Amino acid sequence: MSLITTCLLLGLLKGSYSFCPPLISPQLSSLAQEWADQMASEARIDMIPEQRYGQNIFMARTGNLKSAVNDAIQNWYKDGRTEYCWEDVTENWENSLALDFSQVVWKNTKFLGIGATTTRTNSNKTVVIALYDPSGNIVIDGDNSKSEESFRSNVLPLQIS
């Protein structure tokens, strides 16, 4: 992904955080780009089997990288924020839009990697992949109280100034 597109992404996310946003990681960006290239060559989207990193994936209906990244952020952040249940965070665990949102704003995430590629079979679609380290929004099987506490301390309400 170009530096321009990466900067666009960070610019769109800047107002989303009530804390310092994660730093762009060249290593994560390379991995995200490799996965975006693979998904684009197959004209599909799927999570990286490696579960070490948090992930957001999106298939934009445009061949323009700038528009595709904007559409991905619209989906992950803005649409997800409207779906997010602040009163009972456990309701978010089965809602993919809410989980996408929580990963984007997860407070303890330190590094972010971005990849985007236009599909080869249809130039009007672009795969956008975001990877986060450390991973956020993990639901710990069998320990709802720990998961709930983690969500409450890492997904903070939007700060309006």
Automatic annotation (TrEMBL):
<dbReference type="InterPro" id="IPR001283">
    <property type="entry name" value="CRISP-related"/>
</dbReference>
<protein>
    <recommendedName>
        <fullName>SCP domain-containing protein</fullName>
    </recommendedName>
</protein>
<keyword id="KW-0732">Signal</keyword>
<dbReference type="InterPro" id="IPR035940">
    <property type="entry name" value="CAP_sf"/>
</dbReference>
<feature type="signal peptide">
    <location>
        <begin position="1"/>
        <end position="18"/>
    </location>
</feature>
<dbReference type="Pfam" id="PF00188">
    <property type="entry name" value="CAP"/>
</dbReference>
<dbReference type="InterPro" id="IPR014044">
    <property type="entry name" value="CAP_dom"/>
</dbReference>
<feature type="domain" description="SCP">
    <location>
        <begin position="2"/>
        <end position="140"/>
    </location>
</feature>
